[in-house]
Amino acid sequence: MNNMNFPIGISCFITSSTASVRLKRSATLGTMVSACKNIYFALAIASSLMLCRPALGLDRIRTTKSNVSGTIKSLSRNTVSITSGSAKRNIQTYQITYIIFDKEPTEVTRAKRDVRSGRFEAAAKALEAFVPTPNLPPEILSDVQFQRAYCAVQLALAGEADSQKSADEMANFLSKYPQSFHYFEAQRLAGELAMATGNWDLAKQSFTQLATAPWDVVRLEAAVRNAQILQAQEKYSQALKVFQSALTMPGKEGQSQSLHQAATLGKAVCLSNAGNLDEAISLIEQIISQADSENTLLHAQAYNALGKCYHDSNRPKDALLAFLHVDVIYFNDPREHAKSLANLVQLWNQLDNPRRAEETRKILKTRYPKSRWVQGVN
């Protein structure tokens, strides 16, 4: 028995479990039996622990519906092919939440976890410090480049990073990896940042590329985004037509419902700017009552739009309450939160509460110092 070679983990377990046991030739039979029982017990525990370990040597894909493990055979902007045993699956990229590659370095996996948790600054620092090895697979290298650009854009949208540098980083990724499985997501992000900075031409270019996707739900999103560009430019009559067209577009995925609601919200904003405030308020209230409670961005946008409608209807107290919904409940999106805070500053002053106005102004300037909404309250 002294010559038995156990794995290191098992050896440690046996050593700690049987430290007082000394197997000598002169040991009694009872002592030997007791020692063997301890060893077999240790082996049983170790074996069960081994069975609980996750499978190694596999790529893992998280989709909107399930987890898939296997070996990735190919990646493109439209599909990722993966085999598991004898089975092969082609997964549409718009359904992919994230991929963890078999040979992915631990620090990259950890940084991607931070990205999914919204810790963009921590993830950006980790990814910036990561030095790829010469033999790093190209799919992992491109994924790292995308994650860096993704963090840069998210930080820029939150007013915590330089918008131009972030836009350049995403543009470089798209130029270098035009067939990446991140392609359409990258175009969406590039368009969002372009809209946030008022670069309408670049935003339209990005969402036009988004519209080339082969899926109804993504083309629907592109239509809504293009309508929002027109709306942001205060071309309300043109935007209204595009929103109405988007409401007739098909889409069987669950996401289509939220996109149709976003189109309805856009339609309501256009109507409010045309003076149809009652109809706009009615539409927005319907969206708020029907929208998924987890869609915090849509709720924030809806309450901000409702607040503006009430403000334009000379109902400052109702407007205040609507904007407070964003500040207190739906504050996750930095852009919408900053927008609500800026409006709250004005409304607190209008309602003769300068102390609350100043408190809100300080919060806005502290949390979102680079936001365009800060300039309006100085």
Total number of strands: 5
- What topology, given as strand order, has the largest sheet? 4-3-2-1-5
What is the element string, with H for helices and E for strands? HHEEEEEHHHHHHHHHHHHHHH
| CATH classification class of the largest domain | Mainly Alpha
Q: Which strand-content bin applies to the residues?
A: 5-15%
What is the overall silhouette?
globular
Mean pLDDT: 87
- Spans of at least 5 consecutive residues whose pLDDT stays below 50 are 1-33, 39-56
Kindly describe this structure.
With 378 residues, the chain is α+β, with helices and mostly antiparallel strands. The chain folds into five domains: 8-52, no CATH class; 59-100; 103-214, Tetratricopeptide repeat domain (Serine Threonine Protein Phosphatase 5, Tetratricopeptide repeat); 216-291, no CATH class; 302-378, Serine Threonine Protein Phosphatase 5, Tetratricopeptide repeat (Alpha Horseshoe), CATH 1.25.40.10. Helices cover 64% and strands 8% of the residues. A five-stranded antiparallel sheet has the order 4-3-2-1-5, with no helix packed on it. Helix 5 packs antiparallel against helix 6, helix 11 (254-273) runs parallel beside helix 13 (296-312) and helix 15 (334-350) packs antiparallel against helix 16. The protein is globular and about 65 Å long. The relative contact order is 0.05. Residues 1-33 and 39-56 have low confidence and may be disordered.
